[in-house]
Amino acid sequence: MTTRPRPSLLIPILAGVLVAVVALLIVVLATDDNGTTAATTTTGASTTAVTTTAASTTTSSTTAASTTTFAGGTDTVTHTEMTGTPGPNLTDLRIGDHDGFVRVVFDLTGAGTPMYIVGYESPPFSGASGEPVPVGGTAFLAVHLSPALRYDIDTMVPTYTGDLVLVPGLDPIEQIVFVDDFEAAMYWVIGLSAQRPFTVEVMQDPVRLVIDIAK
Question: In what order do the strands lie in the sheet with 186-192?
Fold first, then answer.
């Protein structure tokens, strides 16, 4: 004999079946074509990265080249009028390196302006003895200076005790050579690697003959 469920129990069973069907239907609708359950992604606020490129500033520093204009020449410079009481003693001979030129300085005693002749000459060079004095170089700047002596004429004590042949190692000077100082007429020759413009000036305290030679 078959036992039928009572009507009071049938309603809850049907309700449960209906709930199950609805749940299954929701799952099916939420499944994509590949059978993969679609995932719902919630994306937060989109953040845009802003790249700030600092302006590259290049400072161009232009340094003007140091240019020295040498206001000299190659003609002989002559001063034949003595003023004051310059000399008569040479105390020092100095060579200095400067921007664009080298300087040769003859230091003297006394006060005033001596006589001088400074100009290019050709070898051979000789003094009162007539003996040739060799000078290194290919161009020769002769310096005649008066009154000037290497010693005190009264005591015969030397006032200039430096070298008579100087090799300063400053281009364009190759040698500076003493030739003579007979009767207080002093004679030196500056041997150069090539002929260069020059200037001549007399300065005071102490008296000194200053010769600048362009490099």
Answer: 77-79, 115-120, 139-146, 186-192, 173-180, 165-166
* pTM attached to this predicted model: 0.69
What pLDDT shows up at residue 67?
52
Cβ contact 109:89 at 8 Å: yes
Quote the Cα angle for 118-77-103, to 5°. 55
pLDDT in tens, 12-33: 444 454 444 444 444 333 444 4
Instruction: Say how many C-beta atoms besides its own lie within 10 A of residue 213's C-beta.
Output: 23
Radius of gyration of the chain (CA): 53
Contacts with 84 (C-beta within 8 Å, 6 or more apart), sequence order: 110, 111, 112, 113
d(CA 187, CA 202): 17
Pick 78-124+133-214's CATH classification: 2.60.40.10, 3.30.1120.10, 1.10.10.10, 2.60.40.3500. Answer: 2.60.40.3500
